[in-house]
Each structure stands twice: as C-alpha cells, then as structure tokens.
Specification:
Layout (H helix, E strand, L loop, with lengths): L1 H11 L11 H8 L4 H5 L1 H33 L4 E2 L1 H8 L9 H10 L3 E2 L1 H18 L10 H9 L14 E3 L2 E3 L3 E10 L2 E3 L1 E3 L3 E6 L16 E5 L2 E11 L2 E14 L3 E6 L1 H24 L4 E7 L4 E6 L6 H14 L1
Parallel strand pairs: 1-2
Antiparallel strand pairs: 3-4, 5-6, 5-8, 5-12, 7-11, 8-11, 9-10, 9-12, 10-11, 13-14
Helix pairs in contact: 5-7, 9-10
C-alpha cells in the first residue's frame, strides 16, 4: 500500500517510470548498515521496485478502461450507487478494480460515491465469506492429560513404521502391523474402555499412521481388536504422542488390547503423489520465475494447493511454460 501511494504520487507529478527505483542507491546509503542485504543485492531490489511499478501502472490503465466502460452503461451519473461501485469492483466490466482506485477515478470526474452503501456491500461480502468458510475443529487432548500420561510413564509413540512400505514396478504396498492400546481418552478424560457408536482418542505404543504435518493431511484407516473395530478419522501428534481420533464402529475397545492397524492405502498413495508434485511444482516455478519462496501448502489425496511469493508477474505464458516444465519432470 505504501509503494502504491508513492507510485500514485509520482504519477501525479508526471514523473517518468523508474523514479522510485532510482532512489534505491539513496536508500542503501541511508539504511545499508541496518539492512546489509540491500548492499549485497542492489540490482535485485531495483528490479523488484520496477516490476511493482509496472504492475501498478498496468492496473491503473486497466482500471480506467473498466471505469469508462461502466460509465458508458450507467450514462451521465453524478453519483455512483453501492451496487454500481460493487459491479466495477468485482470485475463486471473487465478486470477487478480496487475500491480506492474507483474512488480516485470518480473524484477526477467529479462523481460522488455512496460510501455508506459501499460499506454495506463490503460487510455483506464478509458475512457471506464467513458463512461459506468451513472450520475443522482440531481439538487435541488437553495439557492436563499430557501431564498425566507423562507422570504415568506412558512412552511416546513410535511412529517410525509409517515409513515402512514396499515398492515394486511403481506399485506401493503397506503391510499391517500389530500394536497395543496404551490409553484411551473420551470427553477429555482417561477411560478404560469405549463402546461402539462413541468417539475417542487412542494412544498406541507404535503406529504406522501418518500424522497431519507440513500441510499434508493425516492418514485414515481402521484399527481392529479382538472385540471391536475402530475407524481412524484423523491423526495428530501432541508432545510426542500420536493421537488417533477415532469412531468405534462396532464392539468395544479397551486399554491393553492387542490390535492390528490397517492404513487406507489409496488415501495414503494419493497424498504421496501430491506431496511429490508439490516439490516438483516448487522446483519448476523457481526455474521459470526465479526467486520463488514457498509460503505454505495443503496436500490431500485428490488435490494440492501451493502458496508462494515471487518478484515477477505470473503471466499466462509463464503458467503454460511451468506446466510443460512440470510435466517433463514429473
């Protein structure tokens, strides 16, 4: 926002492009000791500022075109309603136009904006977004239970078995393992047994279930004892304990039961493929765009998302090149 204001002020002064990037040497002289990376990569920072200015000027140009197309539809208006402003903002006439730019363009033409109505539209959008957002409660065992487990000497879970699988001709197979039920937690309290139809957290001495970590969802599967069957819906790691969030689908499960673990292999393999694809995507984006920094990712069996920042613009041509490059390296 600060740079946009600077670009806007430079534009009002009719200054040529590149004014701000030409100030980089002065910034380095003033702040170089506090921020030594400025001294090491001056051209890099000039390129970033120039790219930001070019992107800003392009948005201004596109915004003006969209605003003019809107006025052609609305006619000789002296005041823009909230609905009209919102139409321009969401891209009804081409690209999306920021509310600040709409206000500036309207001021240039002496057109008033119904600001109260715009605020109402913004509030409505926030409420719709909030209603459409899905929240997944990731409640874990409380800290008091953690302390009790450690005081009782319950060993942390050995989860090294999650890496044990065989591969032949590109086909993976994960064998089942045997384990022991060390503790059960229901309604945030330790218990000795859980009946069918109830949910609980199960702590085992060893597991092959992958916990949710690094943006990748956890494994799913089943745990079978001699007296019950448990569906594993989620897996979280808390203070070294792998907590299996479960639903007892039949029978009963008790502390001390010997059990057999069965991973949903299709679910795991889907996550593995998308995990690898995320690394490939990261590598290829760096090759195509350069200076890409990963900000986060979300990996499920059916899809992946990859958040990143880069100094350049992500154009359609760059996307097509990245797609071809990723396919060659996948």
């Amino acid at each position: 926002m600060l740079m946009h204001r600077a670009f806007n002020a430079a534009s009002d002064l009719k200054s040529p492009p590149g004014l701000l990037s030409n100030l980089i040497p002065s910034v380095i002289e003033s702040l170089g000791e506090a921020y030594p990376e400025l001294q090491h990569y001056p051209q890099h920072f000039q390129d970033i500022v120039n790219a930001a200015e070019e992107n800003y000027r392009q948005k201004i140009t596109n915004g003006r075109h969209c605003f003019q197309r809107a006025l052609q539809k609305y006619g000789s208006v002296k005041r823009l309603t909230g609905d009209q402003v919102w139409e321009i903002h969401v891209g009804r006439f081409g690209d999306s136009v920021s509310l600040d730019l709409i206000a500036d363009l309207a001021t240039e033409l002496h057109i008033q904006v119904d600001e109260e109505a715009v605020i109402v539209k913004m509030t409505e959008k926030k409420e719709r977004d909030a209603q459409g957002r899905i929240y997944t409660e990731k409640t874990v065992i409380p800290s008091s239970i953690e302390l009790i487990l450690k005081h009782m000497g319950v060993p942390i879970t050995d989860d090294s078995y999650k890496y044990l699988y065989q591969s032949e001709n590109g086909v993976y197979e994960i064998s089942s393992i045997r384990s022991n039920v060390l503790q059960l937690v229901k309604d945030n309290s330790l218990c000795e047994s859980v009946e069918g139809g109830e949910r609980c957290d199960v702590i085992l001495d060893k597991t092959q279930f992958y916990s949710e970590a690094g943006g990748q969802v956890s494994d799913k599967g089943t745990i079978k004892t001699g007296t019950g069957v448990i569906e594993v819906e989620d897996v979280q790691t808390v203070a070294g304990y792998v907590v299996h969030r479960c639903f007892v689908s039949s029978g009963v499960i008790r502390v001390g039961d010997l059990c057999t673990l069965h991973i949903n292999q299709d679910y795991r393999f889907g996550c593995m493929c998308n995990h690898t694809a995320t690394h490939v995507l990261n590598y290829c984006l760096n090759e195509v765009l350069g200076d890409v920094k990963q900000q986060g990712s979300k990996i499920t069996p059916t899809k992946l998302s990859f958040d990143f920042t880069c100094s350049g613009n992500l154009t359609l041509k760059a996307l097509q090149k990245n797609r071809r490059y990723s396919c060659r390296h996948n």
